[in-house]
Design a protein that fits this description.
Chain B: This is LUD domain-containing protein. Chain B: Pfam families: LUD_dom. Chain B: InterPro entries: FTHF_cligase-like_sf, LUD_dom, NagB/RpiA_transferase-like. Chain A: Keywords: 4Fe-4S, Electron transport, Iron, Iron-sulfur, Metal-binding, Repeat, Transport. Chain A: This is Iron-sulfur cluster-binding protein. The complex is a heterodimer of chains A (about 475) and B (about 220). Chain A is an alpha/beta fold. Helices cover about 50% and strands about 10% of the residues of chain A. Chain A is built from 22 helices and ten strands. A six-stranded parallel beta sheet of chain A has the order 1-10-7-4-2-3, with helices on both faces. Chain A has a four-stranded mixed beta sheet with strand order 8-5-6-9. In chain A, helix 3 crosses helix 12 and helix 9 packs parallel to helix 10. Chain A starts with 10 loop residues before the first helix and ends in a 6-residue tail after the last helix. In chain B, the strands form three sheets. Chain B has a six-stranded parallel beta sheet with strand order 1-12-7-4-2-3, sandwiched between helices. Chain B has a four-stranded mixed beta sheet with strand order 8-5-6-9. Chain B is of the alpha/beta class. Chain B contains five helices and twelve strands. The longest helix of chain B is centred in the N-terminal third of the chain and has 17 residues. Helix content of chain B is about 25%, strand content about 20%. Chain B has a single domain, classed as NagB/RpiA/CoA transferase-like (Rossmann fold). The chains are: A alpha/beta (about 475), B alpha/beta (about 220). Chains A and B meet through helix 2, helix 3, helix 4, strand 1 and helix 5 of A and helix 1, helix 4, helix 5, strand 9 and strand 10 of B. Strand 9 of chain A pairs antiparallel with strand 9 of chain B, so a sheet runs across the interface.
Amino acid sequence: MSGTWLGMPAFPRNAEAALGNSRLRANLRKATHTIRARRAAGVDEMPGWAKLRARGAAVKDAALRDLDKHLLRAEEAVTTAGGRVHWAADAAEANTIVTELVKATGHREVVKVKSMATQEIGLNEALAAEGITAYETDLAELIVQLGDDLPSHILVPAIHRGRAEIREIFRDRMAAWGRPAPDGLGDDPRALAEAARLHLRERFLASKVAVSGANFLVAETGTLVVLESEGNGRMCLTLPETLISVVGIEKIVPTWQDLAVFLELLPRSSTGERMNPYTSMWTGAAEGQEFHLVLLDNGRTGVLADEIGRQALRCIRCSACLNVCPVYERAGGHAYGSVYPGPIGAILTPQLRGTATPLDASLPYASSLCGACYDVCPVAIDIPEVLVHLRARVPHPPAERAGLAAAGWLLDRPGRLRAAQRLAGRLRGLVPRRRLPGPGAAWTDTRDVPPVPAESFRDWWRRTGGEDR
Amino acid sequence: MTGRGSRERILARIRAATAGLPPVPDAAGPPPAPRERTEAEIVRTAELFAARVRDYRATVHLVAPGGVPAAVAGALAGRGARRVVRPGGLPVEWPAGDGVEFLADEPPLTAAELDAADGVLTGCAAAVAETGTIVLDAGAGQGRRALTLLPDYHLCVVRAGQIVPGVPEVLGRLDPARPLTWISGPSATSDIELDRVEGVHGPRTLEVIVELPAV
């Protein structure tokens, strides 16, 4: 896996390749089943989960309804508290803003807290092009960065890697990025976590500039919130002199008290914990730091304009939908060709990027519509509904369009259907048993052709006097 | 660079996208009203808090009123901590300790000095029973955020009256203008095969002393 999503083929081809990788399937199965059980326990313990979930959705809807007012309020609060606010319409503008801010500090290295927004805009690559090195500090992001790999999960970007592979990556690659792995490093997760601690320790102590995202931005107070587990987030948010946070405009929640709902929903949905080990909250320039907030659109206002699709903006990036998805569990995250994989990715990516490429147009079909994702979503995003909505929007091949047009014509009038059924019954000897010819062959790749009956049900009903009984 | 043109463009796009949408009623509702709690309720809440913190594999001691100095001395001795960071504003009667050197953050300790310390002793701003969470607000007895981050051992004293039942209640007790750190157990990761492992970058050992009210 090279470090780019560009030019990837459509989902079915990616998934087919992934299904052939038995180690990947074993890693994914183990990890997704572990986390599923832990989430279920965490949610079952919480009384009134359904009500809490409805409130989470309602708070996000309220935030999106008046997004302009909330953003302006947050801007004023952050500015009053000594921070500076920047607005970025797209990825390129956000990258330019961050690059210029880093250059202005005179430093050439930044430490990073795991952030989906900065991955989405390709910030690390943009900084590298300007001679600035970004060091990922989350353990899973570190595994991905050292392995010159791509993330495959929202919460645990290296979920596709097992412990033995992680040991190999640490042993082979840590020295090129800083302190080498300890001699005789084993594959016990404790030993691997310790190796990451040692590798990053001096980097944290010397860091002057940090880049983060945020889980929430409170409009009324201007407070930013980052949830994490390891303490790398606290290191990046606390120690450097300059902090730059890149935050999608949909991360806003209207009030301070609104945070209660999400601090109860997110950890249990995400890692299955009652609470994640560390949550940092700060408003403006904290403890003498220089603070910049970059508000990112990058397609979000387009999503907001879509009546059915806009619910995807409620997403709090918990990844519960990935962990329960039968398609994700087998195909893995890379097949989705985006930093947002899984069911939420299948509705977010085509809305943020459009459906111009074969990959993006295939994503609304990367689902069996089983609905498990909707059941677990802590903000009640009806992912199957949005998938079906997006399927109507993507281009369809001529054979499929012709077939559906013919079916529409037939089903529109009972007389037409009856005539067609009689004709089919008479010609049924000519229908191939297994594979259809021409464009229909793709459909029969994974299915047998259903047998055509000699007589339709309606004709049988009439012939046997069903109407008189 | 302020992205001035983009600011107006983004706001205009939002207004176009949301024009005509019906208003959404306030969903979160007001915070739970604070109320007087009986001593027995306070003790029960403290016991739930202790159990939940222990679930994160942290050590918790419940002590009688006035028992904090002895518990602090005992915990530091048990840990073998000799050089311990002590932010300003902690009660003076807490032990100077036999063989324990306390490091004040005045003038501010460097990151290297904090890293080299054996531990840090703090109070807290509030705590949550349901989730086993301690909240620090960089106020008296807690110090700036780095103090509880770099030393590998954090000993935290919580008064039972500071513990509220759940997350909605604790938000009402906190000042969003202060830098806040919510701590639920020691540093941990689930990044390797989604199994939880305690101890990455933050303090790998968290020890909590809860002072119960007189009953």
